[in-house]
Amino acid sequence: MWGLKVDVYLIGHLTVDIVVEGGNMRRSLGGTVTFGSLAAIRHNATPHVVSKVGRDFPDEYLMYLGRNNVDLSYVRLSRYLPTTKFKLVYREGGERVLYLLSRCEDILSSDVPLDKLKGNIAVIGALIGEVPPSVVQEISEHASLVVSDLQGYVRRQSEDRSIVLASTPEAKLLISLSDVVHAEVAEAKAVFGDLPPAELAKRIVEGGAAVALVTLGAGGAYVATKQRVLFVPSFPTRVVDRTGAGDVFTTVFAIEYHRLGDYREAAAYATAAVSFLIEKPGPDGLRSRWEVKRRAEKILNEIREYPLDEDRRSR
């Protein structure tokens, strides 16, 4: 199974992130499609980025991705709008405040190589709703597996440009159109209310997804199907940088679930991949599938599994 060719089409904006932390400011390449594509390479998959950027997008970022064997054939240049840019301000205690500085054009169905999706994975990595549900609908009619991140469909910009979370019709529509949906616990609560994480995962499944992934950072993750809920503990390690953790979790889960057909093993691989990522800044912590596999085997032994109706009784 390791030799199985896997192509992953990652659809969403490449971004320029301005990171402010401890009085220091730096610029970096960001976006779900960035971290997802770099993780895909290490899991023996071929990543294809489908995105739009402005004329202000740094050439060195494209060169960096190209050198890492990321296919950029479907990255389009906007003639009128700048690249999507975020400002990430990290405060004492680890709190992060996100500001939207600029937004590029939506990604349309004409930008997506729909004919290439048959038998392959599509990861919807929208950051600020740039992949409309109508496009996700078309993608779902072609791809073998559609894996979506909820974050881009619950983010709204306030008057000071900061990002707040809110329930939207688009979020629930995205859930109904996807095979697998990932949400950080705060994002899931924005849609379904202040419920326990296992119940939030169940609600996502009831909304139409076959598999729900609700992550809690150091608190682990809940993985739900129509039959069961898994609790997957995080792997104990030293945390340097959590940037991209949700993106890597989502993409690695997608690849391994497509490859192995087992959501339990896929969750263990995803958790292990994240445990390596957060040990170093940016994507530097990403490791090969062989290294991830050894941690995944340890995590498998710690996964708790129980029926959905049992979860209801325990609350």
Automatic annotation (TrEMBL):
Residues 19-283 form the Carbohydrate kinase PfkB domain. Coiled coil: none annotated. GO terms for molecular function: kinase activity. It comes from the Archaea. Belongs to the carbohydrate kinase PfkB family. This is PfkB domain protein. InterPro entries: PfkB_Carbo_kinase, PfkB_dom, Ribokinase-like. It comes from Thermofilum pendens (strain DSM 2475 / Hrk 5). Keywords: Kinase, Transferase.
